[in-house]
Amino acid sequence: MFRLPAFTCVQIGIAILLGALLFGVYAWKGNLGLTPSAPPAVIPTPVFVEVTGRVARPGVYSFPAPPTLPEVWRQAGGVEPAPWSADPLSSGTLVEVDQEGTCRLGRMSGERLRTLGVALDLNCATTQDLEALPGIGPTLAKRIVQHRETHGPYKTLTDLLAVPGIGQKKWAQLTPFLMVSSP
């Protein structure tokens, strides 16, 4: 007849402890019996719009979602009736109001965009805008704009690597500050 070995209380305690530990790891990894955790909260990115010219309160305004022109107009204290457009404005839009009260849409300066943490659009940026970025001087800024004028709009940020003077290191340094709009 086969006889089982006798275990001491300490050995049995260690075996039970190891079993409970393994079960705990299994339950933790598999969310055993628990409801799934909520996805991480999405932090909304504010939309910045600058208003200049003939309004009561010119300045840069922050919105939780892309605003329409009438919303921006009223926020800046523009004279009613507000110009109408249902199209939402993107972050970095500049609304210039002239003496007659008509407005023209443009882009904020590169320096202002960088201060606000808004990416600069490679397909709209001027040489002055690009000079606001780290590591870009007047010569490289001109090359970036000339490349766009010669070869057409940038399609992706990797197209920037074709510009003389921009290697992988410089490209990696610049990409957090840039974006490419659809041509």
What is the name of the CATH topology of the domain at 118-179?
DNA polymerase, domain 1
Number of helices: 6
**N→C terminal distance:** 86 Å
CATH superfamily of the domain at 118-179: Photosystem II 12 kDa extrinsic protein
Number of strands: 6
Radius of gyration: 29 Å
CATH class (first level) name of the domain at 118-179: Mainly Alpha
Strand content: 5-15%
Give the SSE map.
Blueprint: H1 9-30, E1 47-53, E2 59-63, H2 69-75, E3 93-97, E4 103-107, H3 110-116, E5 120-121, H4 127-131, H5 138-151, H6 168-174, E6 178-179
Parallel strand pairs: 1-3, 5-6
Antiparallel strand pairs: 1-2, 3-4
Write up what this structure looks like.
There is one protein chain. With 183 residues, the protein is of the alpha/beta class. Among the domains are: 47-107, no CATH class; 118-179, DNA polymerase, domain 1 (Orthogonal Bundle), CATH 1.10.150. The chain contains 6 helices and 6 strands, in the order αββαββαβαααβ. It has helices at residues 9-30, 69-75, 110-116, 127-131, 138-151, 168-174; strands at 47-53, 59-63, 93-97, 103-107, 120-121, 178-179. The strands form 2 sheets. It has a 4-stranded mixed sheet with strand order 2-1-3-4, covered by helices on one side. A hairpin with a 5-residue loop joins strand 1 and strand 2 (59-63). The radius of gyration is 29 Å and the shape is elongated. The model has no long low-confidence stretch (mean pLDDT 86).
The gist of it:
By secondary structure, the protein is α/β, with parallel strands linked by helices. It has helices at residues 9-30, 69-75, 110-116, 127-131, 138-151, 168-174, and strands at 47-53, 59-63, 93-97, 103-107, 120-121, 178-179. The longest helix has 22 residues, at 9-30.
